[in-house]
Amino acid sequence: MRSHDIAETVKENTDYFPIFLLKIIIIITIIGIIEKCSHSVFVGGYDMNLYDVTIIGGGPAGLYSAFYSGLRSMKTKIIEVQPVLGGKVNIYPEKILWDVGGLPPTQAQQFVQNLVDQAMTFLPTVCLNTKVEEITKQGEIFVISTDSGEVHYSKTIIVAVGGGILNPIKLELAGAKKYEMANLHYTILGLQRFRGKKVLVSGGGNGAVDWAVELLSVAKEVVVVYRKEQLTAHESQVEKLKEHGVEIILQAEIQSLLSNSHKTAIEQVIISQNGEEYPIDVDDVLICHGYNREVSLSFADDIQPVRKDDYYLVSQGQCKTSIPGVFGAGDVISYDDKVNLLLGTFQDAALAVNNAKMYIDPKADQYAMVSSHNDKFKEKNQEFFKKTIR
Q1: 271-299, pLDDT tens digit by residue?
Q2: Would you say residue 61 lies in a domain?
Q3: Same domain as 153, residue 49
Q4: Are residues 261 and 357 in the same domain?
């Protein structure tokens, strides 16, 4: 899964922001659970904004953790660095997911919508555009500091930040940035804008080739440019490009970009290959040169969890980290025989929440009651049946 700078997209030009992401923001706002995060106030030594669990990360692991913690009657907060919930699944809104148990083939954007709807069942507090920088501890309470200076307080923490904050490696050419809101892209948020267009894709890994294959259904022409001798993507995907007669230019790089007469968009790309340069006319340019992972979430020295490869949290069993009260879910938590699929993510979330609940209340049940027999859903079931009958 790859990521575009979604926050920048929203700030600079809402017209290009996918409708399904806007709907997510609207739904969250209407429900009234987005918190304009403010400094907590202590009254008589008691923090009025103290939460049972704070979930850092609003992707699939964080969202299911929020649902499950609500099921366990925990006061819950989600802190997400992006302006929307859903995590890396948002990067491929039109991809079809086939490997989620009990779910028929579903577009990623609908899957994200379903996850968000489910997460909001018990109305957690949600802080978007909020980057956690450091976690410390005061007595039994975790103190979460953010980039804006806002502070959050929690009895437990579930870290669900996936592989970290991913930023696309940008094209380092003079003047390239000005085309980012025109026809220079670092991901695709909707295939339809490329219908009937000639698209140049720069890159030869799985990301670049996967997108090139997706574009075949809508684009007039696709050209792939890669700096190495061979494409490094999955062989079956490379074969699809060859079968469709896609022009693949190897041992070549983008040398410069030439604008149209209005200076508003890229009209030609100058390619350098074996010491020679030549132009290619384009309608759009897609750059897939990989991602830089920003690992900014840190813990105070006295509560440093054991990590693997200087990033992943090492589970001590049942998604507990080496720090009591801190748990992990999803890609960020590491343990033997881990299943790196969405189905594994949901199990991580349930384990993390159950153990957070028992950390707060050692007498609590180890598991939540199943939803089919849970009184929490009695009224919601009635509402569901009423809608179904209609």
Answers
A1: 999 999 999 999 999 999 988 777 668 99
A2: yes
A3: yes
A4: no
Task: Report the number of distinct structural domains present in the chain.
Answer: 2
* Structural domain harbouring 130: 6-166+292-386
Give the global pTM.
0.74
Regarding whether 26 and 151 lie in a shared domain, the answer is yes
**Helix boundaries (H) for the chain:** 6-12, 19-31, 60-71, 108-119, 206-215, 235-243, 342-360, 378-389
The last residue of a domain, from among 227, 255, 289: 289
Q: Give the chain's length.
A: 390
Q: Are 46 and 153 in a shared domain?
A: yes
Distances (CA, A) of 38 to 51, 143, 144, 148: 14, 13, 12, 10
Structure-token pair, residue 106 = 């579903």
- Does residue 16 share a domain with residue 155? yes
Distance of CA 290 to the CA centre of its chain: 16
Q: In the predicted model, is pLDDT for residue 91 greater than 90? A: no
296 and 238 inside one domain: no
Asked if 207 and 230 count as a contact pair (C-beta separation under 8 A), the reply is: no
- Domain of 224, CATH number, reads 3.50.50.60
Separation between Cα atoms, residue 305 and residue 294, nearest integer Å: 18
Last residue of a domain, one of 252, 273, 289: 289
DSSP states along 71-95: HTT--EEEE-SSSSSSGGGGG-TTP
Tell me whether strands 298-299 and 132-138 are parallel, antiparallel or unpaired.
parallel
Give the pLDDT band of residue 135 (cuts 50, 70, 90).
very high
Give the DSSP per-residue string, 192-223. Answer: GGGTT-EEEEE--SHHHHHHHHHHTTT-SEEE
Do 211 and 157 lie in one domain? The reply is no
Token pair of 150, please?
């806002």
What DSSP assignment string belongs to 145-196?
A: EETTS-EEEEEEEEE--TT-EEEEPP--STT-GGGTTTTEESS-S-GGGGTT
User: In the chain, pLDDT over 70 holds for what percent of residues?
Assistant: 87
Pair of tokens at residue 250: 């190897």
Same domain, 230 and 96: no
Q: Residues marked as binding for FAD?
A: 80, 88, 92, 132, 166, 331, 372
d(CA 373, CA 91): 36
* Residues of the binding site: 80, 88, 92, 132, 166, 331, 372
Three-state DSSP at 300 gives coil
